[in-house]
């Protein structure tokens, strides 16, 4: 079955049962330990509600795992981010994590081609009292970024950008986002280890949707590793998140 769990293409439940969870930790017990010990006890009640609602959605595998949400929250606070952007919202787990971590006058510009997904999580975002920080746009991200870049005033204005949409466009996003983020600001690219497939030989057996995007993720990782405009850090949280701190 040709599917992609990271965008809008059809998906099937059976496929995901093969994945169990998205963490790269190969011990289910250890991952459960992390969640039960350090993540769930501190999860905001509205994030919990959003996560449990999303768990019942057919495309739930797209959601940011709770431990990664905790990481995003910590990063946003550590860099004192105020002006942020998210590319790829789905039902909003990472969005709500970001919005909760921002100061009351902080902003997150949230881009997704599908407003319906966002609206599933919106009641929990409103209940958490952070909807005023979110500017959701139902747009195709690439052309929207191009529009933003047409106005010089938007350049170097974002403290933090989380990229979690169509993997085949990540390099295109990077070429634009790099000019929108401040020097000293942070970009997070999600799913950069792509269930570990990036390290497998090309002829290794893998699910079709994994194979379909693998080359794009490998190309992005190579590009980021040689991009002197950023300092990078590849984390193995979730499905791999690459942090890029703009340095020039
Ligand atoms: N960050 C989300 C979370 O925490 O649940 C998960 C995002 S999900 C992996 C990817 C999202 O990207 C989907 O909601 C999909 O509609 C959106 N998307 C796919 N292609 C897009 C595009 N070209 N522009 C904007 N959004 C896109
Ligand atoms: Ca993701």
Automatic annotation (TrEMBL):
Source domain of life: Eukaryota
The protein's name: Uncharacterized protein
Organism, as annotated: Trifolium pratense (Red clover)
């Amino acid at each position: 079955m040709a599917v992609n769990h990271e965008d809008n293409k059809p998906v099937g439940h059976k496929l995901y049962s093969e994945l169990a969870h998205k963490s790269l930790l190969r011990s289910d017990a250890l991952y459960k330990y992390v969640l039960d010990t350090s993540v769930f006890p501190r999860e905001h009640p509205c994030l919990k509600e959003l996560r449990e609602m999303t768990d019942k959605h057919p495309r739930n595998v797209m959601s940011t795992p709770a431990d990664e949400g905790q990481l995003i929250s910590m990063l946003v606070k550590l860099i004192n981010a105020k002006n942020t952007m998210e590319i790829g919202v789905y039902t909003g787990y990472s969005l709500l994590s970001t919005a909760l971590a921002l100061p009351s006058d902080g902003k997150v510009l949230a881009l997704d081609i599908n407003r319906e997904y966002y609206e599933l999580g919106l009641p929990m975002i409103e209940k958490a009292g952070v909807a005023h920080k979110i500017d959701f746009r139902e747009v195709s991200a690439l052309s929207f970024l191009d529009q933003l870049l047409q106005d010089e005033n938007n350049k170097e204005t974002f403290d933090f950008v989380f990229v979690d949409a169509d993997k085949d466009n990540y390099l295109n996003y990077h070429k634009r986002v790099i000019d929108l983020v401040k020097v000293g600001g942070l970009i997070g690219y999600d799913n950069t280890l792509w269930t570990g497939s990036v390290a497998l030989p090309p002829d290794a057996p893998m699910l079709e949707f994994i194979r379909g995007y693998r080359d794009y993720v490998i190309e992005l990782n190579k590009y980021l590793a040689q991009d002197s405009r950023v300092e990078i850090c590849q984390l193995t949280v979730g499905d791999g998140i690459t942090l890029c701190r703009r340095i020039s």
